[in-house]
């Protein structure tokens, strides 16, 4: 078997293992676009079983290996070089309260309304939100329309992630 075939087999085995853990421990289904805490995976008061955590970490490692295998070196290095910009975008999102503004505007907000609500430049705000959307922090549902995801929910002003990230 080739490297990629072995990697895909390992990934499939770990996904099957995680599905078993999710079912056995009634963890709910992991979601990406659901802005609510849709499962035990996102409940800060509940730690998932070690076996489920271990399966998740193995899946994450396999996915990073797959990505590294199929990504051209110059693209990989460019992405590494842009990480500080992503961290800065995250800090801007917390500082401005983008997540809270989206919620205040009904859970989905146009870029112009968000910029107006936050008193910032629309073009620059769009770059920040789109940068974070590439990491599934926000979702661009249609051109210039954004909503929160399960990840951005933790960036609200009262969220523990927002307090932690403000230290960066």
TrEMBL record:
One GO term of the biological process aspect: methylation
Domain O-methyltransferase dimerisation span(s) in chain numbering: 87-155
Record has Nucleus as a keyword: no
Molecular function per GO: methyltransferase activity; protein dimerization activity
Coiled coil regions, renumbered to chain: 1-28
Keywords per UniProt: Coiled coil, Methyltransferase, S-adenosyl-L-methionine, Transferase
Name assigned to this protein: O-methyltransferase dimerisation domain-containing protein
Species in which this protein is naturally found: Cladophialophora psammophila CBS 110553
